[in-house]
Amino acid sequence: MTTAATRPGDRRVSPVFLGILAVSAVTGWATWTGFAAEPGLAVFLFVTSAWIVSLCLHEYAHARTALHGGDISVGAKGYLTLNPMKYTHALLSIVLPVVFVIMGGIGLPGGAVFIERARIRGRWRHSLISAAGPLTNVAFAVICTAPFWLGALDGVPPAFRFALAFLALLQVTAAILNFLPVPGLDGYGVIEPWLSHSVRRQVEPFAPFGLLFVFALLWVPSVNGVFFDMIDAVLGFLCIEELDTYCGFDLFRFWRGADEYCAV
């Protein structure tokens, strides 16, 4: 297995990422302590910055796995620095994810790392590179839900509890959506190496539209209902109640005014 030599600067953690991490820490503290005059704003900044941190780690996982799989170009492209600007695609990274989080509480990492697949040898390595990103979301979901299923919520302020529940919902939706075997999503990338060449050629033209197709389906009420029933079932298994995620989403959209059920 190739572990390419890269320049020190190619692996140096970006100040942009450290700044976003600092925002997440400070607003998390403000949410916990009630320091913020407007708890909804603190929740919004905490969840958004933590979401961007998870986006960076999602894409870093793809890049790091590709590096060890043989693609020595990822360092020069800046993918190992955790800089969100290196993963940015204007539509997929900013517009659609923000719209869907605000309108429907759906999280989908929208970054992109361009792997030189010709450098990778072995179908298992190709599959692992694709799986590495959503597995990062699974790890984030486990971390966010741990206080709930460990029964460690005594003394946790309601606003922080709600924010953590909503962040967990975003991670769970991101993991499930990314693992769908739809062209353009990581789930398809996992199975693609195992498909015949003819099948891959037939599917390839649809890859740029796979994500938009999933988004369009989620606007169908019946599909949306089934999807969120599944999400609620997963979160319920992890001991997160619907009220927690509902109030987290409510506080996140602070500009709409807080629901009386979610007063903190």
UniProtKB/TrEMBL annotation:
Membrane-crossing residue ranges in chain numbering: 16-35, 90-115, 127-150, 162-185, 206-228
Family (UniProt): Belongs to the peptidase M50B family.
Keywords: Cell membrane, Hydrolase, Membrane, Metal-binding, Metalloprotease, Protease, Transmembrane, Transmembrane helix, Zinc
Name of protein: Site-2 protease family protein
Subcellular location per the Swiss-Prot or TrEMBL entry: Cell membrane
Membrane topology per record: Multi-pass membrane protein
InterPro entries according to UniProt: Metallopeptidase_M50B, Rip2-like
Cofactor: Zn(2+)
One of the record's GO molecular function terms: peptidase activity
Example of a GO biological process term: proteolysis
Species whose genome carries this gene: Streptomyces prasinosporus
